[in-house]
Amino acid sequence: VQLQASGGGLVQPGGSLRLSCAASGFSFSSSYMYWVRQAPGKETEWVSRISPGDASTGYRDSVKGRFTMSRDDAQNTVYLQMNSLKPEDTGLYFCVSNTGGTYISTGKYDYRGQGTLVTVSS
């Protein structure tokens, strides 16, 4: 099983980044997928969620209207388009999978990737 995140980097406030997470080795198309981040010295927090099938999405309040999550089941990949980035968006971003859609409420996941670092700074 692999969840390989990429696309992170250094960006100025107000800038944009697009993260990708390529999955393999499990039933991606039937899994809820999440982007999760961990800022320096802070606890891990979920950022966004996308459902299998209808690809409905959900976002934490602080990123609503700025971030967009999508999935390509043919490529076994999820994306996170991040616009209007703020310094408080800085952190290690990684994707996790959960077949039951319960990660937000339980913190439990099936698989987790290594992450990609996003730094928002002038």
Q: Which structural traits does this protein have?
A:
mainly beta; 7-stranded mixed beta sheet; 122 residues; 4-stranded antiparallel beta sheet
Per-chain topology:
Elements: E1 2-6, E2 9-11, E3 17-24, E4 32-38, E5 44-50, E6 57-59, E7 67-72, E8 77-82, E9 91-98, H1 103-106, E10 111-112, E11 116-120
Parallel strand pairs: 2-11
Antiparallel strand pairs: 1-3, 3-8, 4-5, 4-9, 5-6, 7-8, 9-10, 9-11
Give a concise summary.
With 122 residues, this protein is mostly beta strands. The chain has 1 helix and 11 strands. The longest helix has 4 residues, at 103-106.
Radius of gyration: 13 Å
The secondary structure category is mainly beta
Q: Would you tell me the overall average pLDDT?
A: 95
Major sheet summary line: 7 strands, mixed
Low-confidence stretches: none
Strand content: over 45%
Overall shape: it is globular
The quaternary organization reads as single chain
By DSSP (H or I, 4+ residues per run), the number of helices equals 1
CA distance, first residue to last residue = 37 Å
- Count of extended strands: 11
Question: How much helical structure, as a percent, in the residues?
Answer: under 10%
Topology pattern, helix = H, strand = E? EEEEEEEEEHEE
Summarize the structure in words:
3% of the residues lie in helices and 49% in strands. It is mainly β and 122 residues long. Strands 2, 4, 5, 6, 9, 10 and 11 form a seven-stranded mixed sheet that branches. The chain is globular.
